[in-house]
Design goal:
By secondary structure, this protein is of the alpha+beta class. It is built from 9 helices and 15 strands. The chain has a 4-stranded mixed sheet with strand order 10-11-15-14. A 3-stranded mixed sheet has the order 1-9-8.
Length: 382
């Protein structure tokens, strides 16, 4: 059957049949067809000849407009060769179009499998997840790891067939190897997955003793990983093909390694920056000093100026974590705090009291006395 010219008065207007504009997108044509096919499907309108004719008509229109080449010919020249060639749809008289490709493509399994072509296909294996803990040093410089992954692999004895070596599976006698059985429902013929072979088309009569006919065995595989510098907690690394074995010749799944960085006793990470705290003495804070602080690649000298208060932050540029997949590094921020000694010798106490006197401080007063003096001074100032 051909898509006939629009200018032929006797010819049907396929766009009008589907209720779409001539410039409609493919998705809109498919949507309109789906709605009409559901409405006029023979199973929903048993014995209704008008619905059956309408159903044939909308399939004829969709067969033409869903094919880019046929639609182009139809729009430009009024014809599309072979719009409905090879239908093979039983019960519709002379009407012919590839209904299995059209209707099945739009509706999937809503009304079952129609063509008998949907045999078991190669299936990709399951993806696997592995949680890997590394330390901060490894995230900064990168590292190589070997991990052990338990997974299902194709049985080495039967090479994944499930049959004893030398005795392959036999063709299913019920579906004759097609994996499908046909059911007649009125004028409608539907193909279903064969119950005997499960759609495989073949049956294992002599199972492999190593895998008991499953075609797969549980094994532990060692996988080598290269952890790039700059990774952080939550980063997911994909290792293609290291998941479980596929079925019926399908590829292996993938392995996803989830990174977790263990806490560091000195550094804390914030993005690509590193934070740390360093104690200094009262004398260093008061008089100033050069102090040595650890970094990711050794140590650095920080110049602490005289009169540095506790909590001051010093900035070391490019001493942080490398940027993952990029260039450069973060920075390091060093917070200093004054470490107050808990035990003093009598001589140290004497010197501190002398220092307080020279500074005009009264060490004998407690905190509340000092608060009272503060408010008294405020009152006197008024």
């Amino acid at each position: 059957m051909q898509c006939a010219p629009l200018f032929n008065k006797k010819m049907k207007d396929y766009y009008q049949i589907l209720g779409v504009d001539k410039n409609a997108a493919d998705a809109d044509i498919k949507k309109a067809y789906r709605q009409l096919a559901l409405k006029y499907h023979p199973d929903r309108n048993p014995g209704d000849k008008a619905s059956e004719d309408k159903f044939k008509e909308i399939n004829e229109a969709y067969a033409c407009l869903s094919d880019p080449e046929k639609r182009s010919n139809y729009d430009n020249f009024g014809a599309a060769e072979g719009a409905g060639a090879g239908f093979g749809f039983e019960g519709f008289g002379g009407f012919s179009t590839n209904f299995g490709d059209i209707f099945g493509d739009v509706f999937g399994d809503i009304f079952g499998e129609f063509t008998g072509k949907r045999r078991t296909r190669p299936t990709k294996g399951q993806d696997l997840r592995y949680d890997l803990e590394i330390n901060l040093q490894e995230t900064i410089f990168g590292t190589d790891k070997e991990i052990k992954i338990p997974r299902w692999e194709n049985c080495p004895e039967c090479e994944g067939t499930g049959s004893k070596p030398g005795k392959g599976p036999i063709v299913c006698s019920t579906c004759k190897g097609t994996g499908q059985t046909r059911i007649q429902q009125g004028f409608f013929t539907i193909s279903k997955t064969c119950n005997k072979c499960g759609g495989h088309g073949k049956i294992i009569t002599d199972p492999c003793t190593a895998c008991k006919g499953q075609g797969k065995t549980r094994r532990e595989r060692t996988v080598s990983l290269k952890i790039p510098a700059g990774v952080d907690t939550g980063i997911r690394l994909k290792v293609s093909g290291e998941g479980e074995a596929g079925s019926y010749g399908g590829p292996n799944g993938d392995l996803y390694v989830i990174i977790n960085v263990s806490p560091h006793p000195f550094f804390k990470r914030k993005g690509n920056d590193l934070l740390c705290e360093v104690p200094i003495s009262f004398v260093q804070a008061a008089l100033g000093s050069d102090i040595e602080v650890p970094t990711i690649d050794g140590s650095a000298i920080i110049k602490v100026p005289a009169g540095t208060p506790s909590g001051r932050v010093f900035h070391l540029k490019s001493k942080g974590v490398p940027k993952l997949g990029g260039y450069g590094k973060g920075d390091q921020y060093v917070t200093v705090f004054v470490d107050v000694p808990k035990k003093l010798t009598p001589r140290q106490k004497e010197l501190l009291r002398e220092f307080a006197e020279l500074s005009g401080e009264e060490t004998s007063k407690n905190f509340m006395d000092k608060v009272k003096d503060f408010f008294n001074q405020k009152e006197q100032a008024k």
